[in-house]
Design brief:
- This protein is of the alpha/beta class and about 160 residues long.
- It contains six helices and seven strands; from the N terminus they run βαβααβββαβαβα.
- The strands form two sheets. It has a five-stranded mixed sheet with strand order 4-3-1-6-7, with helices on both faces.
- Strand 3 and strand 4 form a beta hairpin.
- The radius of gyration is 15 Å and the shape is globular.
- It starts with a strand and ends in an 8-residue tail after the last helix.
- The relative contact order is 0.19.
Length: about 160
């Protein structure tokens, strides 16, 4: 096995909302909201590899350039989110099923997208903060980082 993979959700708040002329930026720096920052810290602490799950682009390596602002969400199908077939293709092309565990952070929409992407490998997926409201999930994520245990959840 290739080690631990952590998948973090993108964020609604992007660099261009603060710096409209920022131009293309790496995915790791494109999302600037609090939840993304906490999830990024978790990924950088525990992952052998981490990816960002973007509703527009699918699974992104943190260093890939995002050319400009966008507003696509899994919550609104009319916004044109990436389809399941594309996500599954990315999983295969990126060799992601060689990782164990695969930890998925984020809300219900991102959990569902990850489950669909890894449909034939659901046994690899772990969602340690599933079911928690965003504030509680961020607290639990911070506690996991502080404890050094990626699965530490105290409600």
């Amino acid at each position: 096995m290739a080690g631990t993979l952590v998948i973090v959700p993108c964020g609604q708040t992007k660099i261009w909302s603060k710096y409209p002329l920022a131009g293309a930026v790496e995915a790791r720096d494109a999302y600037i909201g609090g939840p993304f920052k906490v999830n990024r810290s978790y990924a950088e602490r525990f992952a052998d590899r981490w990816l960002i799950l973007s509703a527009k682009y699918g699974l992104l390596d943190p260093g890939i350039l995002i050319p400009e602002n966008y507003n696509v969400t899994f919550k609104d199908p009319r916004s044109g989110p990436v389809d399941v077939a594309t996500l599954r293709q990315q999983v295969e092309e990126m060799g992601l099923t060689s990782y164990d565990p695969i930890i998925v952070l984020g809300g219900m929409e991102y959990q569902l997208a990850a489950r669909a992407a890894f449909a034939n490998h659901a046994d690899l997926l772990h969602m340690p903060f599933a079911g928690l409201p965003i504030g509680k999930a961020m607290q639990a994520t911070n506690r996991a980082i502080a404890s050094g245990n990626p699965f530490a959840v105290t409600r």
